[in-house]
Every structure is written in C-alpha cells, then in structure tokens.
Known about the structure:
Chain A is an all-alpha fold. Chain A is 79% helix and 0% strand.
Amino acid sequence: MSMRAQSATMPWQSRRARRTAKGLIAALFMAAVLVFVLMPFYWMLKSSFQTNKEILAMPPIWFPRTFSLEAYEKAMKVIPFTRYIMNSLFTAMATTLISTSLAAMGAYALARYRFPGDTLVLVIVMFTQLIPAITRLFPIYFTLKGLGLLNSYQGLIIAYTSFSLPYAALILRGYFQGSYPLELEEAALIDGCGYFSAFLRIVLPISIPGIIAVATFAFLGAWNDFLWSSILLTRGEMKTIQVGIRDFMGEFGGAQRANAFMASCVMTTVPAVILFRIAQKYMVQGISAGAIKG
Amino acid sequence: MVRRKNAFCYLMVAPMLALVLVLGVYPMLQTLGMSVVQYDLMRIAREGTPFVGLENFRQICAEPRFWIAFRNTLVFVAIVVGCVVALGLLVAQVLNMDFRGRGVLRSLILVPWVTPPVVSSAIWIWMYMADRSPINHVLMSLGLLHAPIRFLTDATKVWGPFSVPMGAVSSVRIWNGLPFVTVMLLAGLQSIPHEVYEAAEIDGASSIAKFRHITLPMLGPVLSVLVTLLTIGGIGHFEMNYIMTLGGPKDLTNVLSVLAYQSAFTFYRFDLGAAISAIILLSTGAVAAFYIRAQLRATAAG
C-alpha cells in the first residue's frame, strides 16, 4: 500500500528506479550464473591451447601467453583418437536410426489412435524410460557376453537402443499429439488414403522438426554414454571415445599431459555442441511438447 | 474399419514394444531374479547359482558401506534437486524477461546439457585440482581463503552426510542438470498468458506476490514433473560420482549405483550388485508408478 502512496507522489521516478534496480539485480545474478556455467569450458579451451609448462604453473595462468595447437596433435597420438571417434560415430548413428524409426512408428499409433491395450503399452514404455539403467546393466551384460557380443558394434547398439528407444518414443508421442489436429488423418482416411500411407505421406513429412529433435537426442545419448560402453568394451580398438577419454584420464596421465588431455576433451565435446546447435531450434519445441505431456 | 485400425496400430507398436520388453522389462526382472540367488563369479563354476532367498539383502544390510551409500544417495538427491530447481527457476525468470541478447544467453546456458558426462567430470576434476584450481586462486587472491580447498580429496571436514567432496560432486551434477531444468521451466513460463500478470499489476501486486500467486501455481505441473524426473534420475545417478571420485574419499561420495557397479565389476559379486540394483528398482519404481498414474489421469481429464 505504501507503494501506491509513493507512486502517487512521483509515479515515473519510483517505477523507473525500481525497474532499474530489478534489472541490475537480474543482470548481476545472470552474470554469476554465466560464470558458473561457462567457466569450465573456458578453462578446458584455454588449457588445450597452452603448453604443458604453462598449464602446470602455480598459481594458474588465466590467459594463455603462448598459443599452440601442439596439444591437439599430441592428443591424437596418446590414444587412437580417430578410431575411437569413428566407433562412437558409427554406433551412435546406428542407434539413432533404429530407435528413431521404431519409436516414430510406435509413438504415432499411441498418440493418434485408441486401441485395446494402448494404455498398457504406454505404461511399459514410460516405466522403462524412467527407471535408471543400473537396474538392467548386469543381465544385459551377461546376455551380450553369452551371445559373444562384448567388444562388438552390435552389442553396443543393442545396449544403447535399450535406453534410447523408450526415450525417443515418449518425446515423439507428445510431439505427434500436440502438433496438428486430429482432422488431419480423418480427412486423409475419408479421401481413401490407407492408415499406412496417411502416416508415411502426410504425417511424417510435416513431423520432420520433431523427428530431427528426437534423432539428435538419441544420437547424443549414445555418443555421451559411458556406463554401458565401460562394461561392454575391454579391447583397445573397439572402444568408444568416452571410454578412451576415461583411459586417458587414468592410465595415460591426464596430469602430465594435461594440455593434450584437455584437447581431447574439446574434440569430444565439439561435435556434440555443433549438432545440438543445428537441431536446437527444432528441439525446444519438440522437447517441450513431448516432455511435459510425458 | 475398427479392425483395420487396430491391426495397423498393433503393427506399428509391435517392434518398439518387443524391443522395450526384451531390453527393458525382462532385464529388470532378471535383476530381481539375480538378487535372490548366489551369483558370485569366483564360485559360479563350482557352485552354480543356487537360490538363497533374501540372503544377499541381509548381507548388504549388514554392511556399513551400504548404509553410507544409501544415506549419501538421499543427500545427493536432496542437494541436487533442491539447488537445480531453485536455480533453474531464477534463471528461467530472468531469461523470460525482455532484453537484448536474450537469445544468445538462452543458447549459452544450454551447453553443459550436451557435454558428455566423462568430459564434464574431467574438466571439473581439472577445475578442482587443489593447487591449480582457478576457484581457489580467486578465493585466495581475495583473501577469503588461507589454504586451498581440496575439493575432491578432503575427508577431514565432514558434517554428518555432508562433506566437501559431496558438495563438489553435487555441484557438477547441478551444473550439468541446470540447462534441462531451465528449458522446461522457461517453456512453462511462456505458457502463462501475459494478461494474468497485467491484471495483477493493475491491482498493484508486488513482484514477490506475482511470483507466489501466479508463477508458482501456474508452474505447478511442470515443477512436479521436474522434481519427479530429477529424483528418479538422482537415485540412479552413476557417472559423475564414479568418474570423479570412484565414490571416495572414504566413501564420502559413494552412492547406490556406484556401489552396485563396484560390487559387480570389481568384486565379482553380481548377486550383491543385483540386490542393490533391486533396491534402486523398487524405490524408483514406486516413484515412477505414482508419476505415471498422475500423468495418465491428467491426460484422461484434459
């Protein structure tokens, strides 16, 4: 109430003052958050461009005095970097293809039609998506071992699909539900279009943004995985980049070769960030439509 | 017509459902099965896998490490969920304001989301190196600290389940989880119609009143979804605690998933690992069941 009295005496002044104060607090807060969020990336980047001597200096040197790409060259030699990247790329792409296409089919039926058992299917998928991976880890490990699929692309793709398929299905279901009116298919069906061709020729083409978003997430989930690849891969040449980075950190002395280690981290993160940037505009709409509706 | 529609739906759902059952539901049941037999890789060749009932659960409950990990998991979840939601709410509020550069900020804030957990852990280990930590350097230069904080190794200052390493590891998970929370809350904020705020402003409502009586209630559904997802994810969280500290020092950052993984792959006691996993399965399963029920009701109602 006192505010009202105040604004009666000098309406524009106090409101503007309050606005500025609020803006200032918001700006300061945001600056602090940005430091928290971005500082580690700066630290990684600057370390990757420094010489090792400079990195190990105490107190730390904040701005590189020398700027060299030597660390990147070294990083490629300490671990078979290219090979690991290719392993990750291939398994992540295969996972994306399998889980996005199967998820799109299943999610479409769940989103657009009612059929006996639809709720049960949805509950099973939701439950599997929610429950942490550790509860499936040991049996899948033994099954794949029994099939002779340790240290194989197939084994990795199967394991990745186990978490990426239900995830993709739920997001796509939300997307299919919210993105266009029910009349779309009704009209198509009345025009003599079959169910399959309504899905393939009408729904899929207009759903490209959502599918790209989901494919990106499926890819990133597989690309970033450590838990599964750490148990399924024991042999050098089959390892994924995440396991390679972990080896680098441990066995190959992240500390003695800190700059090369940071360079390998940069090279592992950059593809993920670029992909994310490309898909970002599709993503937010796809994700928020999908995730909130569960 | 109806039969053709149903046939179409079953055909579309079948491949997905088959894979989810084989790779999701069945392994979970197998884990439950593994938790009530003896599954010790050192003895399996001679003794096989005899049924032992609840013996594995009795064994882990007799183990102090299990209770430490159990308590740590609860603390980890509480810290991470509390902080990341509070921080996300504030960040989303700011990003929902109208100012220049908002788009850039929104993109920048997302980067930790896509950073691989191994890399996140690696950078933060590097940031946390006691002697070379930029954090320590700043704090010491400002005279706020006399000796460097040993973020990941200090086992001397322990306050119940709280410790320096627990705080350090939780911060990394908060850092990593903030983008997702912010995106979800921002989407929630954007769905609140402007008119509601304008009406409140005409009535002279303060910012705090607007936040309490409009923003929070309108965000309710998104918030409950977030808290549920983060809680379930937190109970099963593995990567950061494993990669950064292996659960150490002195089990200060050990959590259930890490303990289960180590029991299995370090000590070859897959039965004990499965018993811990079964506990994770049952607790997250209970939360998930409530969540799924609420979601289905909401869909049925709306």
